[in-house]
Amino acid sequence: MKEEELYKYCPKCGAKNLLKGKIDGLLCEKCGLEFFINPKPCCAAMIFNKDKELLLTKRGIDPYKGFWEFPGGFIKCSETAEEGLKRELKEELEIDLEVLENYKTESETYTYKDRDFEVLDIFYICSFSGKPSPKDDVVDYDFFSAKNLPKIKPEHKKIVDELIKNEKLT
């Protein structure tokens, strides 16, 4: 179910029959509220060791429980993407992160409890200090070469394939 399908009533006045298609979101005919449906911002860290192996974390919760992915997560209100990424890696791996460069952004659909949310992923190349220790929704972590990759979350697999093609991951 798409996010805009969740809203049956205007969140301001309670009126039924929100209009779709007039704007990028919903419009209430009664009070005129324009309710925009925007992507949820997420951040992910791309961390390489000296052997050009990539750090991935194993998900301990759904969606994609048991799959491997880049560490990171949702950015909170009033956080910058870099602040959110540092917070997420502190929560998930208990490491201090240094953001080195913005690698790219990607759009994806994130399905959670039968709801589809549009997500904007911001990928950063990073380094870290400290010894990683899995916490929160991460159950494991490891560094992987292109030759020994685990089962990766599909949205992140295409980024890993791009890293291999560009010889950033060997």
Automatic annotation (TrEMBL):
Signal peptide (from-to): none
Domain named Nudix hydrolase: residues: 38-166
Domain of life: Bacteria
Pfam families from the UniProt entry: NUDIX
Coiled-coil residue windows: none
PANTHER family, alphabetized: ADP-RIBOSE PYROPHOSPHATASE, DIHYDRONEOPTERIN TRIPHOSPHATE DIPHOSPHATASE
Protein name per the record: NUDIX domain-containing protein
